[in-house]
Amino acid sequence: MSFNRVVCFVRSHEFARGLVEVQEEVKEEGVGHVAMRNLFSLETSSMETITVEKKSRKRHIRESADRLELSKKVEERAEFRKKQNSDNLTHPPEFIVRPRGQTVWEGKTVKLHCTVSGWPKPRIAWYKNNVVIDEKAHPDKYTAESNYNMHSLEIKSCDFLDTAQYRVSALNIKGESSSVATVVIKNGFCSEHGVTFETAIIDSFEVAFGREGETLSLGCTVIVYPTVKRYQPDVLWYRNGKALAESKWVHTHWSGEKATLTLIHLNKEDEGLYTLRVNTKSGFQSYSAYVFVRDEEVELEGVPVAPLDVRCHDANKDYVVVTWKQPAVEGSSSILGYFIDRCEVGHHHWAQCNDTPVKYARFPVTGLIEGRSYTFRVRAINRAGVSRPSRASDPVTAIDPHDRARHRDLTLDWRCLIWVWKEMGVVPGEPTDLVVTEATKNYVVLAWSPPAQRGHEGVVYLVEKPEMWQKVAKFKGAKYFRKALYTVDIYSNSAGMSELSSATGDITVGDMLDLPAAPGPAVATRNTDTSVVVSWGASKDVKHLVGYYINYTVAGSDVWTPANNKPVKGTRFVCHGLNTGDSCVFRVKAVNAAGYSHSSLESEAVVVKAAIPGVPSGVHLMEAARDYMVLAWREPAVTGGADIRGYFVDYRTVKGGVEGQWHELNPKAVTCTSYKAENLKENLFYQFQVRAINMAGVSEASLPSAALECKEWTIAKPGAPHDLHVLEVRDSSLVLLWEPPTFDGRTPVNGFYVDIKEAVAGEDWKGVHEKATKLKYMKVNGLIAGRSYVFRVRAQNLAGVGKTSAVLGPVLALTMPGTHEIILDVDDDGVISMIFECSEMAEGSEFIWSKNYKTLTDTSRLTIVTEGGKSRAIFNAPSLEDLGIFSCEVTNTVGVSASYTLTEAGESLSHFATQMAMELLEKGRVRFWTQVEKFTTGCHVDYVFNDAIVENGEKYQMNFDKNSGIIEMFMDSLAVTDEGTFTFNLVDGKAKGSTSLVLIGEGPHFVDYLGFQVTPECNVLLKATVRFYNSKLSKKDAGVYEVKLKDARGKDKSMFNLTEAGTATPLLCSRTTYVIVKSTEHGIVLYSLITYHMEDLQVGWLHKEAKIAHSDRVQCGVTGEQLWLKVNEPTEKDKGKYTINICDGKDGVKRFCDLSGQDRARVVGGLPDVVTIQEGKSLNLTGNVWGDPAPEVTWMKNDRELVSDERYALKFEHGKFASITIAAVTTTDSGKYALLVKNKYGTEAGEFTVSVYIPEEEKKKE
């Protein structure tokens, strides 16, 4: 081997010395650059001139020494290169030492090392997540070094965003090689911009379902606190753990608060687990949910659906290997094979690549034109027809891999010496390790190792097949060959041809890749109301597994539906989108390139219903002392289809904002929604979280509570009630229950207040009742069907009203379909019972009976019998002790409950079809009657008048028809002495009931009974006076009234026409009073009284001649004979003239009221919210009031009016200042005080609390 050296000729010896110094920085260059250097050398040589110069001896010796030194360096350089390339051949890059992955703490420095061999010397490039690292652009972050084939990359001051895959690539003219190392930066998050960021992802997307061809958007609201101007977090989207980049199929958007991912024209390739990750220097938050893509409807029934995930591999200058994944649905028959289509980039014509369908999901497409780019798609075929085509693959260019490596961008320095060598011809050695890696019915895939001796020039592989060793292919520089042939190998270059490689041996045409074995049996377990978890055993001895498909069917049906349309690799999958209550069966099949396996054994049928309970919420503090805290929380909204068996509480300490590790507080689950955490340290901050447990397992932990300080409470007011929940939710009512606070304050709790508001923005809290209730439950009426409400409860003691409970809700006021009420039943033996039915019984559901909303434990009063979905509570011995509210709740259901109230006077233990009524018969005879629905033959009735039992006789005649159930009592006439209460008391075995009618002269009756009178003409006049009184005359009373009189000699009648045509009555609307103004605690009421109110009476209110619109603040209506207008919280705008228009259809009347220049009474200031004062001191408070006219002032304590005496000095001066003075206060003066001001336009109260303490007791507590 000989070398030619080409150098640039110069006249200056100093310049030559400079070239020798530069020689140490020389980098080897490609052949193309050598040609350019030769051209440059020829151009400069034509300009050379010879100069004769006389040199001194000293200078000659110095130049000789420099030449010797230069020759020595050249020899050393040649020796070094000889050691680097001992066989004088070119070699592709090869990693001797690969970089190793590292895990370090944030803020540390990471250094990756590797050693690479190869000739010419490879060029090194570093990549982060496939993006090249430019260390010159970021010198403060990266430093790359290369010395003697040893290369390194230093990453300084690592942070979380440096967590990535780092790849080092080595490239020379022989090829390219790379190696990957993973760097993980562990949490040691530091503050950024001087603050610590907190990130929360809300309004997150749920499991989504789309169909091929549709567009799907996923979005979350991201809150980063605190807000820093021009700061933007790093928002990333992932699919199955791989970062998504912008493309024509994927669009991402970040608006500053909303992160959105849009998937254009969905395909099955888009199915998977999508994750949103928000990174800041203070940490990260992520959220994940699965996206399912269903197949587009097939055009022809029975054909398979489209294949998916078409990819291109091993692209060469005239062929490429195309792979794909089989679809989940084969159609009405098995898939017979696949057709592969290709399309040249820039064109729209698709050409079919194979005439015969291929069953193997891998196919080499030949006949490509070098340098052109192609996309590919695949179609499946069965007996019913051909499927739609798959999504097209990414473009791939047909190019020789040798040229592909040579076309990489290389940056070389032209300011260096170029060494060019010429190599004598070297005959290559024979290829080795020839093996068949794939052998299908359509093609064979070969692989071999190149020879050790091959020279520098390009090489050509010649492929022959066994039939007389006929040459079938010729191609360059590939290490692996894939072609539809049966082959052996030879190797050649310009110096000659190598020896033949060893033959492959006989190859049997067929699929060397076997079908996968059937997976293990499928096991299905309940998960949520719409999902089931399916697990199975992995297929054994399977090669090149693509994944698994899961199918399901509803028990009793033979239609199987795919649960996933993209194969999954694991052996566990959550099948979403199922119907609640369905009984489903699952099976699994594996798939590889050869095809589908047999289906696994089917799972047992499982009912789709939630299993594990939901997450508890609202963890808050109920009471605190020096060494313990009492916590409470809300039960999960979803119980998982089984009763909550208990809760586990965890805690951790918080010191200086640093959170410790979680520790378990209670090894044994607590059954209530509160817990006393003991053995805590005083003045230390703690956080708590709660997990629920049922028979299926333990839920996720709740959100941690706020940091709570373990410090004894000294406040006088009570703590917050807890454990709020609702029962008996109906369209217009519900029952709210709660537990009293664990901390009573300084005095015991003596009542509760319930607040309500609609669950919409802008609504204010309203009290359900005015006076405190001592009960722990309340029925809330007046709800509007279809609206949602939230509730809270407050407790009070003598010191005042305490903290509000956690808000419950929203609760939808709606009677669920199939809701049943408790009914009272009396059987033939007179046994009384209450019956409640439930049509939504679940596994493990039970009926729980309560009295006054306390679970019944005394079985001596009631016997409970339950059969299927019906429960009966039987009274053992009914008595007054059984009066109360009986309720029944069904566990493991969505709030199925009802109640029945037994009272002494109201509700009864027997059912009356109608209440007692009275009829006026001929000759003044009166009939009292009612009807009973259900009774026994032993039933009897007591007839009572004014608490005295009356007997059948001359005045009263009774009858009880047991065939029809009608009870009657007759009287010949009514007298003034008959005014009172008539009652029928029914006794039927153990059942009792009553119905009453009060008669106080308002019914039709005889004022003068029938009698006779002899007139002066000697005629006999029979006469009687009848009175008919109707206090509320309406349209229903219109008609013709008549009185008939008859005897044996004849009859007569008198008529009265009470209709608009028959009677000229005065206008009803004219019988109204003037508008009256009344003040209330909420505002003012304007009203007018009308003598008669008719249904069709039209009433309208005007303010300043404009019609008043109804709102929450301004309301109008009719109550009895009162036409009213309410104005809550009046303002200046409410002043002016008010008019009421009343019209009865014929004429109308107007009434006016002027409220101009007048103000309602108000407390405008001067009073504090809380006054804490030492015992024995004097208390003096003054409140500023306002109103026109001047208001009346009243002082209240604990809702009782105070009067001025020796203890309380009450004053009201100048109509503006109201004061109260208490000399030498005592602890009895503690309580809730109010300054109540009132005038004709309104009332207002200024409230404050007075707390008196004793210094000695405070010191003892400290």
TrEMBL record:
Matches recorded under Pfam families: fn3 (PF00041), I-set (PF07679)
Transmembrane feature ranges: none
Residue stretches making up the Ig-like domain: 93-184, 212-292, 810-903, 1173-1251
Fibronectin type-III domain span: 306-401, 518-613, 615-713, 720-818
InterPro entries linked: FN3_dom (IPR003961), FN3_sf (IPR036116), Ig-like_dom (IPR007110), Ig-like_dom_sf (IPR036179), Ig-like_fold (IPR013783), Ig_I-set (IPR013098), Ig_sub (IPR003599), Ig_sub2 (IPR003598)
Sorted UniProt keywords: Immunoglobulin domain, Repeat
Protein name (database record): Myomesin 1a (skelemin)
Biological source species: Oncorhynchus mykiss (Rainbow trout)
